């Protein structure tokens, strides 16, 4: 059996699944700033030590973890993780912001939902909207990761500001929502009605009943 573990021991028990531009950098920045634990990806604040979790932008990746891609399931159908978090953004926003209005690339978004849904361990679904709009989702994530005792809401305003500054320096596109809940639907303004309809048809066809289960809050499915 191939070994799909990476990072310092001990191997983390949690995988975070998210399409790009779905709030993972905010989660990473908060976790590192408050818990002092290292998270995977470009260095934020903590350079050394065991990983708090693994992350992937495509849960259906096959092979060992490579950059932002890692398998939620091993080739044998088992998982090396006992817990999984899905960070989910409005599909219309992801369609524009992360996938350049390419429906074929949206299959990655759908596959993340499908694999997360089939995961047998403990699961937590968090939306980008809730991450941006308040602190409760971050508090829940900390509890799920077993670091609830490090959570400090009094420091989150600065962490959010610092995280946006880090993102602007380290990501070519920079932060466009800038943590402002009023901009949560900003990107989909670029969609023509026909493009929005095509996206809805695609999601219904690819996800089936999971479209309603996961996307109804955004009027899909």
Index terms:
38% helix, alpha/beta
Short account of what is shown:
The chain is an alpha/beta fold and 221 residues long. It has helices at 24-35, 91-97, 106-118, 128-133, 136-145, 156-170, 193-207, 209-215; strands spanning 14-18, 54-56, 83-88, 122-127.
Question: What does this entry look like structurally?
Answer:
The protein has helices at 24-35, 91-97, 106-118, 128-133, 136-145, 156-170, 193-207, 209-215, and strands at residues 14-18, 54-56, 83-88, 122-127. The protein has 221 residues and is an alpha/beta fold. The chain has a four-stranded parallel beta sheet, sandwiched between helices. β1 (14-18), α1 (24-35) and β2 form a beta-alpha-beta unit. α1 (24-35) packs across α6 and α7 packs across α8. The radius of gyration is 17 Å and the shape is globular.
Helix content: 25-40%
Per DSSP, the total helix count is 8
Q: Total number of β-strand segments?
A: 4
Morphology: globular
Question: What's the alpha carbon Rg, rounded to whole Å?
Answer: 17 Å
Output the strand order for the largest sheet: 2-1-3-4
Give the percentage of residues in beta strands: 5-15%
Order of helices and strands: EHEEHHEHHHHH
Largest sheet: 4 strands, parallel
List unreliable stretches of 5+ residues: none
Report the end-to-end length measured between terminal Cα atoms.
39 Å
- Derived from helix and strand composition plus strand pairing, the structural class reads alpha/beta
Mean pLDDT: 89
Chain oligomer state = single chain
């Amino acid at each position: 059996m191939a070994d799909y573990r990476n990072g310092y021991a001990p191997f983390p028990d949690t995988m975070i699944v998210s399409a790009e531009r779905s709030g993972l950098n905010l989660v990473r920045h908060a976790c590192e700033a408050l818990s002092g634990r290292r998270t995977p990806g470009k260095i934020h604040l903590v350079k050394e030590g065991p990983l708090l979790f693994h992350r992937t932008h495509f849960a259906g990746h096959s092979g060992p973890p490579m950059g932002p891609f890692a398998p939620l399931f091993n080739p044998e159908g088992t998982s090396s993780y006992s817990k999984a978090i899905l960070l989910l953004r409005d599909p219309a926003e992801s369609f524009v912001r992360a996938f350049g209005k390419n429906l074929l690339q949206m299959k990655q978004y759908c596959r993340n939902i499908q694999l997360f849904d089939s995961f047998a361990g403990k699961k937590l679904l968090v939306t980008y909207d809730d991450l941006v709009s308040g602190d409760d989702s971050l508090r829940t994530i900390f509890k799920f990761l077993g670091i609830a005792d490090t959570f400090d809401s009094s420091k989150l305003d600065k962490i959010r500001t610092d995280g946006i500054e880090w993102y602007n320096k380290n990501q070519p596109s920079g932060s466009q929502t800038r943590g402002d809940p009023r901009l949560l639907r900003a990107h989909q303004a670029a969609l023509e009605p026909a493009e929005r309809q095509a996206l809805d048809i695609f999601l219904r066809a690819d996800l089936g009943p999971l479209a309603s289960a996961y996307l109804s809050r955004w009027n899909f499915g």
